[in-house]
Design brief:
By secondary structure, the protein is of the alpha+beta class. The protein has five helices and seven strands; from the N terminus they run αβββββαααββα. The chain has one domain (46-200). The termini are far apart.
């Protein structure tokens, strides 16, 4: 009777150990699967073009070349009208994040830099040049460089970048349904993000 009792205890212990081992393996597999799903969603987003805008610029170009001192010069000038299409994007492949399977957290470490693409369309009017100071490739390159610099300054002073940041917020908030469904927590700036509003109300969101 004693041997039967000992055998039953050993058998029960073996069953409990086996069940515990199976549960542990199952939980590990589920954690790995949910981690892979989150990483896949981040990779699928890739480059995100968040906003577009149009800007106009009128640029007067002038250049003088001295021939026989400052009293005699050869001049050239052009009136340039520029219509530019501008887009702002974020490459989410550059998003810095960390997955903690044990704590079941997705922590956003750093945000990607905004990428500003300017596609200008140049129209030249009133182009005049003296024989000794003709227009050449360097003039057109200078005009393009100056116009792009001026447009970039206007873009930075406009609301286009703020709109882009709001769109990025929305994209980050798209991680919430997946993380919540899988029982994970989205963390940024050491704060748990429970809703899109939590992101919008974070004043230091774009300070890496």
């Amino acid at each position: 009777m004693k041997k039967i009792l000992i055998g039953a205890i050993i058998t029960l212990a073996a069953v409990l150990i086996y069940q515990s081992w199976m549960e542990s393996n199952k939980e590990t597999a589920l954690l790995k699967e949910s981690s892979m799903l989150i990483e896949q969603q981040i990779k699928n987003v890739s480059k995100l073009v968040v906003t577009e805008g149009h800007f106009a610029e009128v640029y007067n170009y002038q250049d003088s070349k001295e021939l026989f001192g400052p009293l005699v010069t050869a001049d050239k000038k052009a009136l340039v009208v520029v219509n530019a299409k501008v887009s702002i994007s974020y490459d989410l492949k550059q998003l810095g994040y960390e997955l903690d399977n044990a704590a079941k957290t997705l922590t956003i470490k750093t945000l990607p830099e905004a990428q500003i693409d300017i596609n200008p369309d140049f129209e030249y009017y009133d182009v005049t040049a003296d024989y000794f100071n003709p227009f050449d490739a360097s003039d057109y390159n200078t005009i393009k460089s100056n116009v792009n610099r001026s447009l970039l300054k206007k873009i930075r002073l406009s609301k286009l970048q703020d709109n882009a940041k709001n769109r990025l917020l929305s994209e980050l908030a798209s991680f919430l349904p997946l993380t919540n469904t899988l029982g994970w927590t989205l963390i940024y700036k050491e704060q748990a993000i429970q809703s899109k509003q939590d992101l919008l109300e974070n004043p230091n969101l774009f300070i890496n």
